[in-house]
Fold this sequence. Notes:
The structure is a homodimer of 504-residue chains. Chain A is an alpha/beta fold and 504 residues long. Chain A contains 22 helices and 13 strands.
Amino acid sequence: MKGTVPLLFSFLFATVIGLDEKHVIREKANLLAREVDMMVGSDITLTDNEEKANAIVMDMKMKEVDDGFNYPQFFNLSKHFFKYKDDVKESPLFQVIKNMPKGAVLHAHDTGLLSPDYVVNITYSDDLYVCFVDEDISFLFSENEPEQSCETQWLLMRDARYSSGNVEKFDAHLRKHFTVVVDNPSEAYPDVNAVWNKFGNYFVKTSGLFGYKPIWEMYFYDTLKAFREDNIMYIEIRSVLPPLYDLKGNTYDAVQTAKSYKKMLDRFILDYPDFFGARLIYAPIRLVSASTVEEYLETAKRIKAELPDFFAGFDLVGQEDLGVPLKEFIPQLSAGADELDYFFHAGETNWFGTTTDDNLFDAVALGTKRIGHAFALAKHPVLLQEVKRRNIGLEINVISNNVLKLVDDIRNHPLASFLAQGLPVVISSDDPGVWEADPLSHDFYVAFVGVSSRNADLRLLKKLALNSLYYSTAPYKDKMIYEFEKRWSRFIDGLVRRDNEGEL
Amino acid sequence: MKGTVPLLFSFLFATVIGLDEKHVIREKANLLAREVDMMVGSDITLTDNEEKANAIVMDMKMKEVDDGFNYPQFFNLSKHFFKYKDDVKESPLFQVIKNMPKGAVLHAHDTGLLSPDYVVNITYSDDLYVCFVDEDISFLFSENEPEQSCETQWLLMRDARYSSGNVEKFDAHLRKHFTVVVDNPSEAYPDVNAVWNKFGNYFVKTSGLFGYKPIWEMYFYDTLKAFREDNIMYIEIRSVLPPLYDLKGNTYDAVQTAKSYKKMLDRFILDYPDFFGARLIYAPIRLVSASTVEEYLETAKRIKAELPDFFAGFDLVGQEDLGVPLKEFIPQLSAGADELDYFFHAGETNWFGTTTDDNLFDAVALGTKRIGHAFALAKHPVLLQEVKRRNIGLEINVISNNVLKLVDDIRNHPLASFLAQGLPVVISSDDPGVWEADPLSHDFYVAFVGVSSRNADLRLLKKLALNSLYYSTAPYKDKMIYEFEKRWSRFIDGLVRRDNEGEL
């Protein structure tokens, strides 16, 4: 605070010979300082060693930001993710962020998590049949030729592949079904519905593949493995919990699908005891009637009853603009709130003042614990206050919002203002496999280099990782944060040491 | 406010059988109402007739917004301005907005205001010489062949045109120098520097054309005419005040250029006494040294001394990212503040935390009366508070920001959050001629249909028009607002009448 006398003096001065230059400089510094105090990460105090690491990280960050500023024609994060995703791997800062303990992933979906190459590999499994119809494809595991309809003909995948004459070409073509990545995204996806159509089709096309119980279970195990390797210690997975099937003709309902998840989690933790765990958010499709939502909620309660430690809560998924808005389900969701925690998708839209946009109000009124995306929140000043007051975690997925056409230039992503306002932000990755991103590293990198202030430093990175643990539903949060701090110190020590040894 | 008893009751209820549905609905309504109260325009009360007009306007708006929402593949304002600017003319709402009294234009530059067709017409003037060098062009008025250097050869424009063999083709080619509009903007302008280069070149190429005193004066007279026809009653024009010349070899300095403006304004007001006036913001190029800024400020003071009623204040212009930041001129600008009001461009950038971005802090600390663009302001929570507290008008130019590549999809323009937060917003148009927009109607239309909430109505339109008068520097503000109200009533009456008569 300034004293009264110099302030008064500078006012008097100003009326006589203009503004006092020192006063202008002091006032600017004061305004800047107030903003710095407000930013996400401003409450973190760095140790001496962290300060050293910070200098390394900030050298890297400023070089990359300034190169983008000075040479916008080359690599920079203002372009579409597909245009820079491979270049990112050359960035030393990206490598640092890969190695960095990043805490938890709190917003990630079903079978959208692993790369198209992984999915192509799955198609090498025994007993897999495929049905090609023009540009469409479907899969089914079966001991004999499936009885389900196929407009052409079910082929044993192995036969289709090896009779194609060129396995490499066959697989490359197949791979295109498992990714939304294309060379020219603005041409391939001229509008939001076009890209959502391609994105949604991935899940439709692969339903016969992933619905096979052994594959479903393997996929989750391998997801945990991939996330652990990306230095993630815990995840909360959203799933529609599709019915599963096996070769014996058995089918498994949503509760049993949830149990498959739990079984694989237990197995994974036996194999990798340094991984902290996973919990489930049951998140079925939102384009349904109120009575279906009532059934969903009953299913959710059954899962919670059977897997109380594994079940985290409830959500609804699908393209929010084209889905049914939350307000249609208020009676059901109000009643369900006695037993269930909510983690609603809301505000994944650009359409200000529409019913989709209003989902943000309903989600808050329904007591949601976190908000998925919250992209439109920046347009809602009262909700911004409420999010802060109620401490509702915001699950931000920058790359997803870019790929799914909410924002072309991520410097305009509302995350920038959320970070500036010190909102409870968690960085997540949504469906990184479908756009060929790493489980979380690309999203962290893009948020840090592309969206946050040029001046936002290691404190932001640490805070974002800590937030992901803090806003999780894990019952062993303290233990997890304790372990995180240990891993963080090791990461910092390693970074400083490698820098000293000239290895960076 | 809710009573304590029902609130307590609903809390108790919630713990027993979930949330009370009525409580959820009430809470949402409460949150929504608080936001509605905060929006720009919420303080306007509509008369009965205005309510009728509002119903007409909102029918049109919702139809257009919902068509965009439902059929994103067709016309909608999420695309680049060049893609929809001609379609807009088919919109009945655009026609309404054209007819609507829009108040003042407070942010508009020199010779960027009239269409390329108008500029082509100017090239039919006598005594005009042209120098073609590859894709470059320059002009000079002269009685004889100019002595200035030309890498090829000065041609009398008339000779060049009629010896071309195809006047239409010649003019079409010429026209391309006077517009940034192209069929495929993302291809033509891959980055911000590319489009700024084309934009800046327009001013460079036409400097010999507009620097000719009679043309300079005619251009301003015709600007006032075009703006008046677009239902604008007052403008504040920013100008670099270039030296002018005539056929006799005389040159005129910045003060004399300012006097040319004033002379034409006086003539215009004699011809059109219903136009309220214009004032000048001297806004020379920012890519200069501190000593040049000192000279600028001296010039500004001279203009103020000679034209005290016409001179409004001082600013600096040019691509902000590549210009010198305000902080380099703090000593000069602090000292200049004794005599001069500031209207700084600031925050016309996407680069969060850079020196360009910091211009917002310097502008506020220097006591700027308004901020030009303020695009980056949404990332600065403390400055947002200060702008409101100090009542600093924000001159928002949505189409400019789209064309000059700050934002690809205007639904992500920060204006949306400024409107939601009730900030002192003024809609302006920057350089509408260069991108072939109307003086102000396109910007109003895009702000209203493309950026503001689907629910924002006639009160927003009226408030934006009133703001443009309120945040002007006009000394006859009350009289202007009084006259505005009269014109507004006529507009409302006409709209309601035409609707009754089935003319809409």
